[in-house]
Structure formats: structure tokens, C-alpha cells
Amino acid sequence: MTRKFKYQLRSNPSGDFCCVPECTISGKFNSSVSFHHFPKDEKLRNMWLRNVRRENLVVGRSTKVCSRHFVPTDVIHSGKRRLREGAAPQLFTWNHYSPPAAPPSSCETTPPPEEESREEATDVESWLRCHDYAAKPESSALDAACEEIEAQQLVIEKLQKKLVETTLKQKFGLERFSTSDHDIRFYTRFASYSHLLAFWKWIEPATGKMARVVTRSSTPSTTAAPEKAADPPCQPSRCLPLVDELFLFLMYLSLGLKEEDLADRFNIYPTAVSRIIKTWANSLYTLLGAVGIWMSPEKIRATMPSVFGQFPDTQVLVDSVEMRCEMPSSFLYKSHTTLKGMIGVSPHGAVTFVSSLFSGSISDKELFWQSGIFPLLDKDMAVMVDNGFRIDELVPCKVYRPASLSKNSQLSHDKVPVTEDTAQLMMHVEKATRRIKENKLFDTIVPQTIAGSINQLFVVACLLNNFQYKP
Fold first, then answer.
1. Would you place residue 129 in the very low, low, confident or very high pLDDT band (cuts 50, 70, 90)?
2. Distance CA 187, CA 371 (A)
3. Are residues 162 and 246 in the same domain?
């Protein structure tokens, strides 16, 4: 019984299998092994259950024991194999398939006392070996089982990691791009994920008091009876985490995506996208607008680049920003309607002044007059402007401007180097203007749907320039 069995596939395999632990016999192999049901006799069935040694075994119609666990004399080979009456499984791996010794019959010669004691000891050992319920598997089998468990644990960990990665890929949010600074620059125009995270930690305490935009259906009705007090407008529930709402707003500014596109990416409704954009435009307009960006002359001189050596008193470089908007055209001025704003940049490149937006037909001189920059200037400062800003008689300070030529005129020899230097230094403010216009929302035609919040969006885009490039 200790030799290895070699089984071959049966021509007509069955679904039978052996319920004994560590037995791999099934009905897929040849007919040299038969399968037998548990007996109906309760006493004999309990003996089978005790010998099989399988905890919490529920005996059913398909619970069988193969003939390998019975003594060969207990299996009757007359047609269909059956068991001898009262037979019980005795051969298992834990007793090395050795049956317990049978007790001597009364007709046999009584052995000597020494042999009798030896046989009794052998019988006891065999019986204990067959009924040793505290037996433990061999060390080799235990090591193999431990190795298999460790291998399965590694597979589970890999699958869990893959599931997390797949979930992140399906979810469009800031966390998905946290490992790629290139994607962060593309979607938000921030230099890196760490810079964006630092900006978020700075504004996060103020988000708890953020006033959220509500839909018209949420506002109280004006036709309600006067004796009934109108219910306050209900605050809409957030469908995205706050940091993902900020990510959506920055994507809207940077890429100029349609609300339907953003709704599809974040798996929310277009109306929710509209509310998020308006809410964050108003909130950042208030939050960033409360930060004093105008720099004192002392700080300007401390950060003055060496290229401004000939213009050491320059306080601000001024230029205008113009954008097209989707509105009825004016046949008196241009082929399309535009909006114009003015920004001021310090000599080292930070945005220090932002005006509101005006109609595109306004002149640069009038734009400078209505921008509100006059109270910030004094006689010890200097302003560097482009040719269109004829403001010499308006401001109390010095004005640096490239010299302009009238018809049939020529620059004097002493004005040429000053004009060249001034035109070259105006590139500082033009770079800031270009960075603002790189927000695709302002680079294309501004839709009429955001006409009510375009001023807030423009100011926020200008102020974010200081955090995106020089946090």
C-alpha cells in the first residue's frame, strides 16, 4: 500500500471525489478505484466520521470515500463494487496506509507471555496510529503549504495594487496626476504638483466659509404669500472633493474646455460644472484680491534686475490685455467686440496691479485713467509704458516710453539707445501678458455664458500668475 499509484484518465469520467483529507482521488481516473457512500447505520456512520478525521463534515448524497482507504478484503468485486457489511475506512496517509492488526481468534494457540505482550503493544500502536487525532502533517508538507500561502499573498497584493491603479485611472481628479509634473503644468499651469499643493494648503482654511452658487430653482419664490416667510436658499451638495473642484476650475482657465467636456471627464452634470466655476471664480477673486500685491519702492529696489541700470526708479511696467468676446458686433469700431484690461508688472516680473475689464473701444490713455492706479503713484516713482499710453500730463511721476516718430521725422542720436533699451525692457510686461493669454479661455472667443463672471475670471488668472510661476 506504500507504493505510488499511477492513474489514467477514464474513458467515461464521473464527478465523484474522495472526502478524506489529503486524498486527491477523483472520478476522472480509471475504474481501479471505486467510491462508496456513508452507511445509514448511525453507529457505523459515526465510526466512518471518526476515522476520516475531517472537522465539520456534512454528509450528503455526494459525500463519498474511495476504495483506497479500505482493506482489500472489505471490497467485494462482484459486478458493481460494494463493501462488506460493517466495513469501515482504515487506510490513510497519517497511518501510512497500514491497517491495524486484527485480534487473535479463540481457536488459535495461545502465544507465550512475551509474544502476547509484544503483540498487544503492536496492536495498541497500530490503533493509536490509526486514531491519533492530534497528528500533525509532515514538515515537508507544512513547508510547501507555507510557501503556497506566501505565493498567494504576493498575488493578492499585486492584484490589490493593480486595482488601485485602475481605479485611479478611471477617476479623473488631481490625485491621478500627482506623480506627473508635466501633466500638472498642462492642466493647471502650475510649475509642479508640490507648488499646486502648497497653494491649496494656503487657501484650504478659507474654503470652509466659501459661498456656493445656487441654481434659480433653489432660490425662494417671489410669488409666495406675504404672510409666509420665504425659506432660505438651500446649499447644493458637493459632488466632488474641494481639491478636485479647484482642479476643475484651473483646467477651465488653462485649457478653455467646454462645460460638457469637463462634465464628462469628472462624471458630473454640466450644471454642476457651471456652479463650480462660478463659485471658485467668486471665491478666489475675493481671497486673492485681499492680498496686497502692490510693492513698496524699497522692495522694488531690492529686487531690481541689473538690466534696469539706466532706469533705477522704475516702479511698474504697464500694458493692456485685449480679448475677443461672443457678443453683438459694433460696426462703428471693430469687426468683433472685445474687452480690454490693464496689468502692471514689477521690474522683476511679478504682477503688482490688475484693473477691471472695459469695452475694447476704450483708448489706452482712458484705460490708464479709469484703472485706479493713480493713488498708488507719487513723484519719486517712474512708470514704463508702451507708445499707446500718452499719460505724461496725467501722472505725477516720470514716464519712460519708447520714442515715437511723426511723419518725415527721425530720432535724434541721443534718443536711439534709450528707445532701444525701453523697448527691450517692455518685454518683461509682454511676457506676463503672454502667460495670461496662454490661458485658452482668453486666447479664444470668450463665450457669452460667462459674461457675468468674466471680470472675476480675468483678475483671478492674472493673480494666479504669481503663484504658478513664482510661488
1. very low
2. 31
3. yes
pTM for this predicted structure: 0.59
Count CB-CB contacts under 10 A for residue 111: 12
Is the domain of 326 the same as that of 240?
Answer: no
pLDDT tens across 169-208, in order?
667 888 888 889 999 999 999 999 999 999 999 999 998 8
With CA atoms as reference, report the closest residue to 69 among 85, 101, 93: 93
Q: What are phi and psi of 53, to 5 degrees?
A: 60, 50
Instruction: Give me the domain span that covers residue 93.
Output: 1-98
Could you tell me if 263 and 358 lie in one domain? Answer: no
pLDDT of residue 182: 92
Closest to 370 in 3D by CA, of 344, 334, 397, 342: 342
pLDDT at 224 over 70: no
Q: Domain check: are 278 and 305 in the same one? A: no
**Domain presence at residue 442:** no
In the chain, count of helices (H) and strands (E)? 14, 10
Rounded to an integer, the average pLDDT of 43-71 is 87
- Residue 471 banded pLDDT, cuts 50, 70, 90: very low
Q: Are residues 247 and 326 in the same domain?
A: no
Residues 346, 380 within the same domain: yes
Query: Looking at the domain assignment, is residue 143 inside a domain?
Result: no
Closest CA to 276 of 252, 292, 295: 252
40, 86 contact by CB (below 8 A):
no
CA distance 9 to 234: 72
